[in-house]
Structures are given as structure tokens and as C-alpha cells.
Amino acid sequence: MKLILRENVASLGQAGDVINVKPGYARNYLLPQGLAYMASAANIQRIEEEAVRRQERMRRDYLEANRQASQLEGLTVSITARAGSEGQLFGSVNARDIWGLVQEADIDFELDKRSVLLAEPIKAIGEHLVPVRLQSGVETEICVVVEAEED
Length: 151
Hints:
This protein is an alpha+beta fold.
């Protein structure tokens, strides 16, 4: 049975590909899930229109992510925490803490919690560069300054 993929399917192909599959697989999985259309002239045109819309949406998302990255670029946030005499923190600063600080900063968008890419929690005072990944794979870094709490 000839189908046109509407979305990327791992074992079959990319969106817009014309594929041949067994009728049962098409009827029971691909068509009900909305992953494919029957291969006809009208559906080929529909897939092409969806591809144009998808490309435009991806372009808009990329431009928006770049705008957001420009706002975050050069951003410095500070946090105070209890620390020992050698600069080691008694606790740690994690990605959620950094996310909260960024949300309080002067930005005009909501940052996703999963965007802050902190491999390990920060356990020492000082300046730390923390990568932030926005949608569409755009990355930037923010500076997190961890200061010792005054007694």
C-alpha cells in the first residue's frame, strides 16, 4: 500500500516520503495515528503545503530563539549561599535555582526549566558559566555568581 508520511517515522522515513507498507500496518497504525496519508495527487499537495508551513514555523521558532538568546547573552545573576572558609558551599546551587534567578531578571519571555543545562550542581563560590539551550537548538551562556553568605 502506497502512503505519504506526514511526520518522521523512525523505521520508515522522513515527512513527505512516499513509502510502500503492508496494508495492515497502514490501516492499524500509520493512518489512525495521523502519521501518513494515502498516496493520491490531492494528498501529495497537502503534504507539500504542510511542509511549507512546518518550514515557516521552524524559521519563526529559530528567529525567536535567537532573540531570546540575545537577551540572555551577557546576563549575570547572583546568588548567596552558606559556605565554608575555603569557598565550598554547605549545599549546592542547582539548575532550578538558576532558572528561578533568570525568571526574576529583566527578560520578556518564560524560560523553560529544562533549558538550563547544568551538568553538576555548583558547589563552590565564584563565577560559573552555565549553558542555556533554547528551542530550535540555539545555545547561549549566562554567568552565575555564587557569593558567600555574610554571618
